[in-house]
Description:
It is built from eight helices and nine strands. The protein is of the alpha/beta class. It has one domain: Rossmann fold, CATH 3.40.50.300. The strands form two sheets. A six-stranded mixed beta sheet has the order 5-6-7-3-8-9, with helices on both faces. It has a three-stranded antiparallel beta sheet with strand order 2-1-4, with helices on one face.
Amino acid sequence: MxxxxxxxxxxxxxxxxxxxxxxxxxxxxxxxxxxxxVVGPSGSGKSTLLSIIxxxxxxxxxxxxxxxxxxxxxxxxxxADFRNQxxxxxxxxxxxxxxxxxxENVLSPALARNRPRTGQIRRxxxxxxxxxxxxxxxxxxxxxxxxxxxxxxxxxxxxxxPALILADEPTGNLDAKTAAxxxxxxxxxxxxxxxxxxxxxxxxxxxxxxxxxRRLEEGRLVxxxxxx
Length: 228
């Protein structure tokens, strides 16, 4: 059964001349454990699509349901809780807080709900171990490489056991070797956590690792040809 259902999603922005439509009737479904890569040039609407699916932005029309819940029907506070508990985000720029250690950064989603519980601290340490940073828990971002920072970001996204992981150009700032490692790590962690994973990317190499691939063309989501 699909856990994520995106139906006729459209997004239009007002401009001085005429409205700019970046998404047109986007539809797809994903079940638990599935993954999808969305490719397309800059300005094609990839990040906008991810922001709407993650309830960071609102659609002009159409809808999103995750585990049967429409996030846009929730109050602001309930929507924030839904986003915090059910969705994990990984961005091109890791967005780590420089004053916090790796462990504290992983725990930052829990800070929105007061102090982290013992179980959350234990899970954060387990996740850092799973991404290969067991020995770096007390290091701050300035003491980590670019790849290590993105590993922390992956662990942070998984802290609350989200049903959905959204990755926006997660390897965009990395060299080719490190990018391949992070791509493999994302997919490994998604399988182990039995979550849905969607990434938007310019990288054909990263997209090629995913089970399903789609391309955004003129605002519409179309099938991406199979990679030989």
